[in-house]
Each structure stands twice: as C-alpha cells, then as structure tokens.
Amino acid sequence: MFIANTLLRSGPSAALISLLLMGCSSAPPKDALSQAELTIQEAERAGSSQYEPELLSSARTKLNRANEKVDEDEHEEARRLAEEATAEAALASAKAEAAKEAKQADEMRKAIEALKQETSRASEGR
To answer: Which residue ranges in the chain fall short of pLDDT 70?
Structure first.
C-alpha cells in the first residue's frame, strides 16, 4: 500500500510507468529452459537426429532463441519459446520411438513370413 501511495503522489504517469516496469520484470524462466534442454537431450537419445532431424533442429533453434531473449530481459517471450522447444523435442522423441517400433514390427513381419515359407517348403519336401 505504501508503494502505491508513493507512486500515486508522484503523478499518474509515473505510477503507470512504474507499474508497467514492474510487470515487465519477471524472473528468468530457468525451469522452462532447463526442461527444454533435458527434453532435447532425451529426444537425441531416442534417435530423433535420425528419425526427426527437422523437428529436433527446430526445438534447438527455439531454445537458442529463448536464451537470447533471457539476455534481452524478455522473459515471457523466453518462457514461451522454451515451452515450444520442450513440446517440439517431446514430439520428436515420440515420433522417433514410433518410427523405431514400426521398423521393428516390419522386421518381425518379414521374419515371420520367412519362417512360414521355410516351413511350407519343409512340408512339401516330405
């Protein structure tokens, strides 16, 4: 209350400017940046570099831009970019896992088909 009274006595324009500045000075989004970095690392371990390189690259670019925005004291924009980087990295990871599982399923189908053919030939040879 003391701060508000002091600002109002300084004049309405000074009060408005001070309130705007206080609203802009949010804390750096350290948690969001850390989460984005971890999610990108997980996506790399999941094979996103091979299966989803464009999406992983986009996530890295957004994380780099988020770090630049922190340096420019644009913390809300940095938070938004970090959250987008996290989402893109998670999507890249999920798509990479799905692609690996699809590849394994295809290999299993081929192996089953080869076994069926071999069994069929063995039955005909008797």
So the answer is: 1-25, 125-126
**How far out from the chain centre does Cα 118 lie?**
47
Q: Using the structure block, give the residue that is written with the tokens 């998670």.
A: 90
**Smallest Cα–Cα separation from 78: which of 18, 31, 9, 11?**
31
Integer Cα distance of 82 and 95 in angstroms:
20
The CATH architecture to which 28-124 belongs is Up-down Bundle (1.20)
CA distance 41 to 49: 11
| Cβ atoms of residues 33 and 86 within 8 Å | no
pTM, rounded to two decimals: 0.71
The set of residues, in sequence order, having a beta carbon less than 8 Å from that of 108 and lying 6+ positions away, is none
Which two tokens mark 5? 């009274």
Distance CA 34, CA 11 (A): 41
Place of tokens 């705007």: 20
